[in-house]
Amino acid sequence: MDSPDLALAPERGRLKMADIARMAGVSISTVSRALAGNTLIPKTLRDQIVEIAQTHGYVVNQSARNLRLRKTDTIGVIIPLAHEAGQMISDPFFLEMVGRLADEITRRDYLVLLNKVITGEPGWLDRIIQSHRADGLLIIGQSTQHDALNGVAATYRPMVVWGAPIPGHRYCLVGSDNHEGGRLAVSHLVARGRRRIVFLGEIDAPEAIQRFEGYRAGLMEAGIAFDPALVIPSHYTREDAQGAVEGLLASGVAFDAVLAFSDVLALAALTTLQRAGKRVPGDVAVVGFDDILLAQHSTPPLTTIRQDLEAGARIMVDLLFRRMAGDSSPSTISPVRLVARESA
Amino acid sequence: MDSPDLALAPERGRLKMADIARMAGVSISTVSRALAGNTLIPKTLRDQIVEIAQTHGYVVNQSARNLRLRKTDTIGVIIPLAHEAGQMISDPFFLEMVGRLADEITRRDYLVLLNKVITGEPGWLDRIIQSHRADGLLIIGQSTQHDALNGVAATYRPMVVWGAPIPGHRYCLVGSDNHEGGRLAVSHLVARGRRRIVFLGEIDAPEAIQRFEGYRAGLMEAGIAFDPALVIPSHYTREDAQGAVEGLLASGVAFDAVLAFSDVLALAALTTLQRAGKRVPGDVAVVGFDDILLAQHSTPPLTTIRQDLEAGARIMVDLLFRRMAGDSSPSTISPVRLVARESA
DNA sequence: AAAGCCTTAGGTAGCGTTTACTCCGCGCTG
DNA sequence: CAGCGCGGAGTAAACGCTACCTAAGGCTTT
């Protein structure tokens, strides 16, 4: 059928536009236009060219296209991990967030470029931006990088950050009402008669700070004095939380509830407490934060502060695309709600 | 300090190598070499150039680099979703796999490009390969695309597929011993006195087929006749499995155990059975497959066939990089083991 | 019938790198 | 002292594409 064409094809897999042009007997620019669906080329010719390209398995080389067009049809999703504390992309919260974002992004026919970043070396963000590998950036968690983010925000628009608002932030922020979450959790625990409420987690990132502030606000509302002995630091991993809770138990400090920074920490606390013979919620009530999938499946099911990640992801991607289109978009804080299950 | 340099810089954000060259008073090629650490350039000059680049926030444009070098330092992770059955990247199994792969890939300083593909349109794989956006491809699950994969395997080397071996497969395959998994599960159930064992799942993808074959082999070993009425089809989503189990209950068919294709399905079955008043494992024992994180947290904890995803991901990435280096690497099937928890 | 206009198509200049090739000057050897 | 090798740096040709500019016809318009 098209035997003459075949002779013209170079080795498979390195076909370029010029090859298709030769086969079709037209110029390169005509092929480019035809494949782009440009109506400058009459429909019949366009279809012919597309047909030839298809039967030969030709596809536009994106590296070249990206260079020429100065865009990549790709969104970078960045996971900043501070301290090299061993937290990985496999962390359930990140994973859920990444999944949701990926669903939203692919729905818009963009690709997702996943970046794990060990923050610390200054200029990491500039490096990512200037490499021009993505048309926009989604940053999951400010970690301790508020200043770095603020630094680029002035000149680099297509960026949306998940996290908590810090006075003077100039980047576009999407997040939950962490303060209210902390307050809600405490008020729920207090209503169930708890008075000695542990706060489990590292208080470094803005989200953590605000949850902690909410915790203190909740205590104050209830007229309970804040006791520093009940603040138990723990990194973001299961293992770390387990160690922290074991330490707490060993210390002999009395407590009847745990409010954890995240569900991952809460679940670790739950199992550690149970293994130590404590009944949950009988002896100790446990409240988490996030409402990851696991939360509803633990034994007992975890009471937690729910962040609607699906909505959050949708908003982030929405705002990002508006920014990429030149709009300036406002930061957005979504409400949280307490999901009462059985652990508290 | 370097005030004359500043005057030469164009608007921030679009610095190119030529600008750095001008600032340093050398040619473009010298800058390129210096930034690449090429020892042709004496160390002092190299350091000077790097310094200038750094203070001005210059970073090599990857689009251009990719085009010139014909490589991207990027691995494509592809999630083929058949049937448009609503399964999303947010599916726990995919997510866990993606997380593990991402950890392995970023460890090697490559980036991860996430691709959701609705298989169906022929040529989807060619399109991805020819777009030259990634240096290698990791495909999570053969789905129904065995032929498409086999088609490109001959000419496209850097590709590794997660799934189950099919006679005559020519692509590099990594997976678990699905047949043995099915057999193990049945043998475990039989040892606990179960005789009417349901198989819950779609029997379309190779992995499913082999798990099903293992199920039949297990029955045969135990001298139990295979009963087609106990094969309950269900797509890969929670919702679908729930419907399927409800249908099963309504049908009145007697059964005392469920072996599900995946943990997601098993967990859906678990809750559906409980909601219908069945006790697990009292009335019905439930066994899953995969051992996703959720499995150990359900009530009761799920007995399941464990696939070691961490090891699997490591092997996949390992083999892929060997293939990218030109080695040909063998397919690998990892053993599975039964994790007995309380649901069976 | 000359002048314009629209349609259709090609030529070609980049996009920003990397690297093979060339060139220059200096210290050595024979 | 001619010639040679070599360290050091520049020139220019790709990499594969898109889009601006130009041009050739075949129309309509005055």
Give a brief description:
Chain A is of the alpha/beta class. Chain A has 13 helices and twelve strands. In chain A, 50% of the residues are buried.
Please specify the SSE layout and strand pairing.
Two copies of one chain form a homodimer.
Chain A: H1 3-8, H2 17-24, H3 28-35, H4 43-55, H5 62-69, E1 74-81, H6 92-107, E2 111-118, H7 124-130, E3 136-140, H8 146-153, E4 159-162, E5 172-176, H9 178-191, E6 197-200, H10 206-221, E7 231-232, H11 238-251, E8 257-260, H12 263-275, E9 285-290, E10 303-306, H13 309-324, E11 332-334, E12 337-339
The structure holds a DNA duplex (30 and 30 nucleotides).
Describe this structure in words.
The structure is a homodimer of 344-residue chains. The first copy, chain A, is α/β, with parallel strands linked by helices. In chain A, 43% of the residues lie in helices and 16% in strands. The first copy, chain A, has 13 helices and 12 strands. Chain A has a 6-stranded parallel sheet with strand order 2-1-3-4-5-11, with helices on one face. In chain A, helix 2 packs across helix 4. Chain A is elongated and about 85 Å long. The termini of chain A are far apart. The model of chain A is unreliable at 1-11 (pLDDT under 50). At the A-B interface, helix 5, helix 6, strand 2 and helix 7 of A face helix 5, helix 6, strand 2 and helix 7 of B. The structure holds a DNA duplex (30 and 30 nucleotides).
